[in-house]
Write a structure and sequence with these properties.
5-stranded antiparallel beta sheet, Beta-Lactamase, 32% helix, 463 residues
Length: 463
């Protein structure tokens, strides 16, 4: 291994990375490490851990310091990385450079892993604990139509679109929840849409904690093994996931928020930042658990909602109010129906509120600072609509159908949801005899329309 020598006169290696992730300059040790990862000067930083910290510093606009372990040839290197935004660049300082024993499975898992890697897989992939790719077989890229280097550090779903199995469950989510090996996860390659079957063994770090997956992919001939038929998620799976994750995640979020707020006394700024990251990730997982429970419900053949008479203008005002703090933090204003405005419709109050929180929340997320999100109610002859409009980057016509499908997002690399919100929202709207549609164009924002059956005004409501 040609790692940086910590006994050298200067034990810290420096690099300059552009806001686009391109490595502008670096000390020899970092150049060599980056080249062994498949990168070079003038190209995107190829070491996934360094690239992740660089993106975090760029997004937050603050100094980010992290300890990381980087795979390098036949050994691992324990590094301390400091990323500091400076104008239109990020300056990296990398120290430590301590060689550590690379990860190896312990005990009986060794034989299982050897058998797994000797299987008839077409190529290999590995992830870290957050399911970001840390290894992809380089030789598979040209053959199957993807850029293996560009995928490093990206979420696993940037390479694969996961699909439900024959029982309606997602083996990947079950393996992640139970921290066990995964087999038979159907998926499709992003871009080409070719079917593939995924398997993986769990990897653990030196403390025994979950550290990601060691995975394999096997191409599936469509004419021999057709794509699995969509089926509802099993009740057993979602209820088990709900029980197993909701309470622990809630405790993690609460404790991380307490550390970040320094409720029990001052802590180092870096640790406060780590706690904020942990709380954010915990909330994301809680949203996923909630969405999976909703997904199981809306896909049942007998799913129905208790429709009642609701004031759609009032529900819209409530949804906007719930998101006012988030909008204020983002520098976005929300225009909502005026107090006293009434617009009666037929629907389930809680589910309509859920849909509108999703729509307005998405609009706030994708709106630039200083812009306005509008949520207005429009009444037709037989229906009532809530129109949520933003001034974001818009949605291309080819993506306007895809965003209402399961686990689909316009840009999976962006921070945001899990690709279930709009799918569930449309299913809920249609269960109330309404609909959810979108009108948009690139660069012109988006206009989502929730439509519900109108309820005739009663005497006391006419004003």
């Amino acid at each position: 291994m040609n790692a940086y020598d910590p006994s050298a006169e200067n034990p810290v290696a420096h690099a300059v990375v552009g806001m686009d992730g391109v490595l502008h300059s670096a000390d020899p040790a970092l150049i060599a490490l980056n080249q062994r990862a498949g990168g070079d000067l003038g190209r995107a930083l190829a070491v996934p851990q360094l690239a992740t910290i660089t993106r975090l510093a760029r997004r937050l606009g603050i100094i980010v310091s992290r300890g990381v372990v980087v795979a390098d040839d036949d050994a691992d290197i324990d590094l301390w990385v400091r990323a500091q935004p400076e104008g239109d660049t990020i300056r990296l300082a990398v120290s430590g450079w301590r060689e550590v024993q690379p990860w190896q499975p312990i005990g009986p898992a060794s034989d299982a892993r050897a058998t797994f890697l000797a299987s008839d897989a077409d190529w290999r992939w590995d992830t870290d604990a957050s399911l970001c790719l840390t290894f992809v077989s380089l030789e598979a890229g040209p053959r199957y139509g993807f850029d293996a280097i560009a995928l490093l550090g990206q979420p696993l779903t940037q390479m694969f679109a996961l699909e439900a199995g024959d029982d309606g469950a997602l083996p990947m989510l079950d393996a992640l929840a139970r921290r066990r090996a995964m087999t038979g996860q159907p998926a499709r390659l992003r871009g080409s849409g070719r079917p593939v079957m995924l398997s993986a063994e769990v990897r653990h770090d030196r403390t025994g904690a979950f550290a990601g997956f060691v995975g394999a992919a096997r191409m599936v001939e469509a004419e021999v093994t057709p794509a699995p038929v969509e089926a509802p998620l099993s009740t057993t799976f979602t209820s088990g996931l709900d029980r197993a994750l909701r309470a622990p995640l809630a405790r993690i979020v609460a404790n991380a928020d307490s550390i970040n707020a320094q409720a029990d006394g001052p802590v180092q700024p870096d640790y406060a930042d780590y706690a904020a990251d942990i709380a954010s990730a915990g909330r994301h997982l809680l949203e996923l658990v909630n969405d999976l429970v909703d997904l199981q419900a809306v896909e049942r053949p007998d799913f129905t909602l208790a429709v009642e008479r609701i004031d759609l203008a009032d529900v819209t005002r409530r949804a906007a109010g719930l998101l006012s703090v988030r909008a204020g933090n983002a520098g976005v204003t929300i225009a909502r129906p005026a107090l006293g405005e009434l617009s009666w419709a037929l629907g389930d109050f809680r589910r309509v509120l859920q849909i509108l929180v999703n729509l307005i929340g998405n609009a706030v997320r994708y709106s630039p600072p200083g812009s306005q999100v509008t949520a207005v109610v429009e009444r037709g002859a037989r229906d009532v609509s809530v129109v949520v409009t933003d001034q974001g980057k818009g949605i291309a016509p080819e993506d306007q159908v895809r965003i209402f499908e399961k686990f689909e997002r316009v840009d999976p690399s962006e921070a945001g949801g899990n690709g279930l919100g709009l799918y569930i929202a449309r299913r809920l709207a249609r269960a109330m005899q309404g609909d959810l549609t979108v009108e948009s164009a690139p660069g012109q924002g988006a206009r989502f329309v929730l439509t519900l059956p109108a309820d005739a005004p009663r005497g006391e409501d006419q004003r």
